[in-house]
Amino acid sequence: MSVNKENVRVYVANIMASLADTDRKVAEFILRNPARVVQLPVKKLALESGVSEATIVRFCKKIGYGGLLSLKTELKRELLEESDLTLPSSPDIFLGDSRNDVAQKIALTLDTTVKETIDLIDMRKIKHIVEQFIHARRVMFVGFGASGLSALEARDKMNRIGIDSEAFTDRFTMTLKLANLKSDDMVIAFSHSGETPEVVNAFRLARKAGAHRLAITHSPQSPLNELADNFLLTCGSAGPLQGDSIATRISQLFIIEFLCTEITLHKAKDSASPGESIKEILIKERIKREG
Question: Where are the domains of the chain?
Fold first, then answer.
């Protein structure tokens, strides 16, 4: 399993909540001072960030880089590609904002959410995930609470493109339906925290049966991801009056749309002409199924 870590700041910002206090201190220093991180040796970085040199090196390895040099290389490349070196973030909404300000800030939140979600996707994994969807005997989406809505949306969209799917959003149904899983089934779990007990238990059942397991979550280090074959990260940053629900929901919906589009393209690659649009392909597929 892997995740796209090429955009260092987006990646670090999105895993912040899952880090221990000392690691969070390092992450915060990176986000506040990206240019200094690139320039300073580890000794000075440790002095300025208030942690030990070993902590910095361990942090880099813990979040998936080869070490401090590897993280610096990616961060330097990122900074050189940008004219604006500030960390992309959703604007806060304040009590004194006008209605137009609020609307514009929410719109910017949605735009930022989609861009950050794209940055977090490891595109190298998508082909394998798409093939798992296409060849699975059964496809089952699970989610609890707000993430349950995404599971239902994913089920409906997958059914529309010819992937026979079910969705379970309560503990009893999840346990009952997943008890008879086979190794060629696929379970996709939505959980922002990656710690929702009902969803984690669903993955335990799926692993016991040897079924394919895809986690769609905000946290790369979580009980859910430990049980997963693959995972896709969602982002979830927003202002204090918004909570993280809008960003989480949009990020999950974007991943659903992206996967459905990739599945449609994969299935049509041998039968459709290069000039056909997704809309035309879907209409043909629907006519074929209903005929």
Answer: 8-81, 123-285
| CATH fit for domain 123-285, picks 3.40.50.300, 3.40.50.410, 1.10.1660.10, 3.40.50.10490 | 3.40.50.10490
pLDDT in tens, 70-102: 898 888 888 877 644 443 344 577 787 788 878
Q: What beta strand segments (E) does the chain contain?
A: 139-143, 165-168, 186-191, 212-217, 230-233
- Tell me what pLDDT residue 7 has: 84
Q: Closest Cα to residue 249, out of 203, 193, 192?
A: 192
Beta bridge partners of 216: 190, 232
User: For the chain, first and last CA: distance in Å?
Assistant: 40
Query: What's residue 3's pLDDT?
Result: 56
Task: Return the sign of the alpha-carbon dihedral for residues 160, 161, 166, 170.
Answer: negative
Domain 8-81 indexed as CATH 3.20.20.70: no
- Collect contacts of 149-157 with beta carbons under 8 A, ≥24 apart: 149/249, 150/190, 150/216, 150/249, 150/252, 150/253, 150/256, 151/188, 151/190, 153/253, 153/256, 154/188, 154/190, 154/256, 157/256, 157/257, 157/260
Cα separation, 186 vs 170, in Å, equals 18
The mean pLDDT of the chain is 85
